[in-house]
Design goal:
This protein is α/β, with parallel strands linked by helices and about 280 residues long. It has a six-stranded mixed sheet, sandwiched between helices. α4 runs antiparallel to α5, α7 crosses α8 and α11 packs antiparallel against α13. The protein is elongated. It starts with 8 loop residues before the first helix and ends with a helix. The mean pLDDT is about 95.
Length: about 280
């Protein structure tokens, strides 16, 4: 297959998983290439996500690497055969690459967890909230560009609003609910929308109240996207240098534990709705 100029996060992830399988087998790139009847440059391109793989070739590589995890191999094989051209591709060249990568990740996710302390998570945001947030953080950008960012965020919500939505669990701090990103009316509308969404069977919203003693997890914001097998889960975090996609197993295990800890310390869904309702009445 022809060499790509740039890999998407999903393509890079497939390549990274193939590198992990090779390294677990104790093989160097040139040794893997010899087994496969190719050259080390081709192996490097595959592992960088810059060269595609057929399902047959992937399974042959996994066999040479002595990988016996059939669930993982099948999940990786499915990544090679998927030819989805998603709605996010309409924004190619118009939005940062990380926006498109996140939308593609969500499209393929089996479930989604969010933890947020200062802002309402993107999947729960109203249009007015998203508009106010993007306008404040990026005042130097023209209105037409900000409108594209907002529209992209609104389209991402399809994963929890479509007929076959994925399970979604969100943990918010009370601070995120009290901060008025927009005006009073927009904040009231945003809180009302969260309450409406939390009534859905597939959506769980929990709140960490200000008066919780001994809470030190305010730095644990995360987006956790569940893959077809745990090895293909992904954590997404914002950093000063941009959006970071995390897939190392030790890190994934840490974030799974952290999410469960934060969720366990939050209010039950019913009490969380009561708190949100009270905040709405105060506006």
């Amino acid at each position: 297959m022809p060499r790509r100029q740039q890999a998407t996060a999903r393509q890079a992830r497939l390549g990274a998983e193939m590198r992990k399988l090779r390294e677990a087998a104790g093989l160097k790139g040139r040794e893997a290439a010899a087994l496969l009847g190719t050259d080390s440059a081709q192996v490097s391109q595959v592992e960088a996500g810059l060269a595609g793989l057929s399902e047959e070739r992937l399974r042959r590589m996994a066999a040479h690497y002595a990988c016996t995890d059939e669930e993982l191999v099948s999940a990786l094989a499915a990544m090679t055969t998927d030819r989805t051209r998603g709605w996010w591709e309409e924004y190619q060249g118009l939005l940062p690459t990380a926006f498109l990568d996140l939308a593609e990740l969500e499209h393929h996710a089996r479930y989604r967890w969010d933890v947020d302390f200062l802002h309402v998570p993107g999947l729960l945001q109203t249009r007015n909230y998203a508009q106010a947030l993007f306008s404040y953080v990026n005042p130097e950008h023209p209105a037409s560009e900000l409108d594209r960012w907002v529209e992209h965020r609104m389209q991402r919500k399809v994963i929890i609003e479509r007929p076959d939505p994925i399970p979604y669990r969100a943990v918010l701090h009370e601070a995120a609910l009290r901060i008025r990103v927009g005006d009073r009316a927009a904040t009231r509308t945003q809180l009302t929308r969260i309450m409406e969404l939390s009534e859905a069977d597939h959506i769980t919203v929990r709140v960490i109240p200000f008066d919780l003693d001994g809470f030190g997890g305010a730095g644990s914001d995360m987006v956790y996207a569940g893959g077809p097998v745990p090895e293909l889960d992904t954590v997404v975090r914002d950093s000063p240098n941009g959006t970071v996609f995390i897939d190392a197993e030790a890190q994934l295990s840490r974030f799974r534990t952290l999410f469960r800890k934060v969720e366990a310390e939050s209010l039950e869904p019913g009490r969380s709705r009561d708190l949100i309702h009270r905040l709405t009445k105060e506006l």
